[in-house]
Amino acid sequence: MQEDIENRSVTLAINTAKLTGRVLKSAIVKYLNHLKEASRERASADVHPRGKQSVKQLVGQDQGVANIEISDKNIRDFDRVARKYGVDYAVKKDRSVSPPQYLVFFKARDADALTAAFKEYTANTVRKKERGSVLQKLRDLKPLVRRQTKEKKKELER
Questions:
Q1: Position 152 pLDDT exceeds 70
Q2: Which of 28-32, 68-72, 77-81, 83-87 reaches the highest mean pLDDT?
Q3: What CA–CA distances, in Å, run from 144 to 83, 131, 134, 151?
Q4: Would you say domain 55-134 falls under CATH 2.40.30?
Q5: Has residue 29 got a pLDDT over 90?
Q6: Where are the domains of the chain?
Q7: Spatial contact of 91 and 102, defined as CB atoms under 8 Å apart
Q8: Measured between alpha carbons, how far is residue 9 from residues 1, 16, 22 in Å?
């Protein structure tokens, strides 16, 4: 009689362990399926890229596109300023002209933000040109340094 009770209690313990394992497994599977569905819904949602993008992506948003030409080589400075103002834009290099020009396409609704970005960009380029090159200033000062005579002082210091 004692053995029968022990066998039943061991069997009950094993069955409950299996049951909790099965329940845990099914809960994890349901949770993973839920995550997959949520990620599919987010991917299928109408999300538009922001900032710098391709011309095709910009035109695909059906909000009207305008463009401005830039002939400056240092287009990265403009990228930095445009990101600061939150403008959706695309840069295309026109190689048919020498030196190459850059066409900046932007949404028509971003025109005000883009004009503000261009004002800051042009102010930065003008400031950089006025400031001049540090290397050029050093080259200009080299002859002055060479002309100076070196004075040697021989004194004992205590």
A1: no
A2: 28-32
A3: 44, 21, 16, 15
A4: no
A5: yes
A6: 1-47, 55-134
A7: yes
A8: 13, 11, 20
